[in-house]
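Obj.: predict assembly geometry.
Materials: sequence records (below).
Method: joint structure prediction, all chains together.
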Amino acid sequence: MSKKIITIGRQCGSGGHTIGKALAEKLNIPLYDREFLEEISKRSGLSEDVVEQEGEYSSANKVFNTATGFYRNYDMKDKASLPLREQINAYQMEYIKEVASQGPCVIVGRCADFVLRDRNDCLNVFIRSDLDKRVCRVIEEHRVPDEEAEMHIKDRDRKRADHYKYITGQVWGDVNNYHICLDSGFLGLDACIELIVKCYTE
Amino acid sequence: MSKKIITIGRQCGSGGHTIGKALAEKLNIPLYDREFLEEISKRSGLSEDVVEQEGEYSSANKVFNTATGFYRNYDMKDKASLPLREQINAYQMEYIKEVASQGPCVIVGRCADFVLRDRNDCLNVFIRSDLDKRVCRVIEEHRVPDEEAEMHIKDRDRKRADHYKYITGQVWGDVNNYHICLDSGFLGLDACIELIVKCYTE
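Observations (raw structure tokens):
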């Protein structure tokens, strides 16, 4: 089966973004990660900050966990009438489908594995790593203060998990939702990139 | 980090045994899978059937889910005084540690990732696949009758999950317990073997 799209789910501090960026460069295909914020901001008329906070990291996601399957029955024409967070999710889904239809690309986060589940040309990847290694990484790479690093990681991961549950009705990081899951702390980022390229190009 | 031991957790019908066998052949190292049954039978004086049923597939595992962490505090000298199932688990753990100490090898199932958690030279692998592909595989390869295939898979997976929970206190197939998880149905067995060899030899 020929693969066109790489979706990457990732624990905070696992290097998922770095891996996505390197894959896009190596394969010479576009990367969509923080690029979503600018585009969704443009389409919705909301600031990038609001798009980020109300999207993948909304603290309200948890409250709505039982209202799963949002994306499944959503009518895209009704976006304007939706609450803020639903608007952003709807714009995001529309944009994910749009970029996927344009050709090969790498999409980081945003439940892209679920949004594109009806395509059969996606390689769905999940990147994890042990907490101690992720703590080191967010201190060094993301410049999070030492004493806040663990809390920062746990908070972001909790919000990502809640968001994934809210959108998909499924468990974030469940091995059954991915074609390949890698421990970037154990294997190293370079090895992860090589393994994913191998999966993608074979 | 140089890796010596490959442990393989696997969903029933995912081809985990076949992958383990091919890895052992390619890397020219021993494979331990059903080999456990013969050895544990010899050591314990119990039949291979009893060893298999009371070990990884014991229907009693579920009942004892709350009594987790069995392996953690177990004194190996007391084996003879233990109930049958605990005896088998104890022999199994002892044998896993023994073969791992003898040199590189591939170990399929038996919570080997957990039993060898204090070593830092293990590559822990989990093999999964979608249910429909696993159904085809157990019909073709394991000669399970068509009408029983799905039930057979679900029963074995439930028992493996219960056994893993009983022994380790953790969730079987949790992405956080493995260095690499692969969808053998999507990627193909040959690609899985190549990817694991790449992880092992780099």
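Conclusions so far: Strands of chain B lie at 5-10, 31-32, 105-108, 122-128, 180-183.
To do: check interface contacts against the pulldown list.
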